[in-house]
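TICKET #2291
ISSUE: user wants both folds in one file
ATTACHMENT 1:
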Amino acid sequence: MSTGTMRHAILQVRWGPLAYQKTLIEPGQVLKVGRAPSSGLAVPHDKDMAEEQFELSWSGKRGWLHGVPGVSGTLLDGEPVEQGEIFNGTWVRAGQTDFSVYFEKTTPPREPEQPDPPVLVAHKARALEVLRAQEAPLYAIVDTARDARILELLHESVEVCLSLYEGRQGTALAEVAPYLVSLPRKDSWLLEALVQEGWGAHWGIFLTSAAPMLQVRRHFRKFLMVEAEGVEGRLYFRYYDPRVLSAFLPSSPPGSRDEFFGDIEGFIFSGSNGEVTVELPSLDGKRPPGRNGTRG
């Protein structure tokens, strides 16, 4: 686990200006939530929330919500409460803000129908080796429409995850959207889970970039919809599917390739047989020999 033996509780804002923000609660800690800037999680834009609305306490195994005396309007899984136990996936509403509570690394992976063949085991080990060796900041883009397990992992991790959709579309499609995930710790259990459970299953792609996360998100949002010759209207471009990316990058003209890379230093994803594929930016319209398209 990325935090050693410590397991966090995670309070995540579901919608609104603070959407996807995660606040961590360490064992023995109490988190105060309200409009006041001194709150552990301040929600200043919600005028229907009290200066101090509620508190969350976490023992490392169990959690509790405690209302502030004299303050009403806190709902726990839809029911008005003064206090109550919280569980993994609990929904909290206060004022006009919705929150979810998750416990880090709680839900175990499903038992596979059959074990990975030895060649895929080797490819996964190689993928982790390559990803952990990256010097530039590491990100993933994962497609939660591929498997409900992906969103489960994102919720139960401390890493920052941002949907590439926004507005009404983002709200309506939050459970099947592509998400940009920051993976700053190479010993992250989330990184290992994404590889061990999703490598070769088309869950998504990895990439490196020194650009800030919000800048990386803005860059990839530009490519979500594209126009295709002979097709009326715009189409979803699922470049975060490794099968799509592996076909798109080698066939792209240098200009299109450079535009797609932008500030991205490299893409790392599963090849058709699970092998590690690395694609780097072109240099003067030519691929660096022995680097782009590397297989491992």
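ATTACHMENT 2:
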Amino acid sequence: MPAEAALARLRAGGFEGPFALAIVTGTGLGALVEAVTERQSLAYAEIPGFPAPGVSGHGGRLHRGRLSGRPVLVLEGRAHAYERGDPAAMRVPLETIAALGARTLLLTNAAGSLMPAAGPGSLVMLSDHINLSGHNPLVGEPSDARFVPMTDAYAPSLRATLQAAAEAETIPLLEGVYAWFRGPSFETPAEVRMAGRLGADLVGMSTVPETILARFLGLEVAAVSVVTNFGAGVAGGDPHHAETKAVAARAGADLARLAAAFAARLPAP
């Protein structure tokens, strides 16, 4: 199995667990890696079954090290469902980090905001999501484990820990519901209005399939969006990928501080 081959490669390279936390970085958020000390890195291309990200702003490296003294894994970048039509593109990496002993997963992403109070540069913690893509990464899974409960998919205890970390660092942290569109084209103003009427506060093209996979694998999940723009038609929003990368990079310092304070509050593995 690909995950077994990946696990063997990583263990041979010294990537031994357990880990207090694994983090996936979104578009333009690779600066979070710089907060990790005692860092050891390996390109996805060197790990069997790890997909090479095909989007600029995603580094495509796995790092191990310490964040606030806690042993962590950082997946710098992700493969998206829109790249090859595979919503399970991150299954092998997530299976691998679970097998290495990570039990908590922090997902980050760049997102468009539907909330006037959450302009570009804001951080928003996910409380729930809406899958508008029509896809699910567990399609084809033969076991009954595919029937994954998704109530509290974003663990309330981890959300409370994130909020405490944000307050300690005086970082404003809002909370909202994320709607997953498959992409890669940005949403139309009509689609954004629809998402808002369905209860979404954010729109984006990632995170939801990873949350489903993580819950399938028994991982506890928290997620934070960096707002890089308003959604199309909201407060003049007209999103572009260059804007996404630029704003995410500027907000990366706050996200790194939040992640470090979050890690410090997690129990040692």
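RESOLUTION: both attachments delivered.
EXTRA DETAIL ON ATTACHMENT 2: The mean pLDDT is 90.
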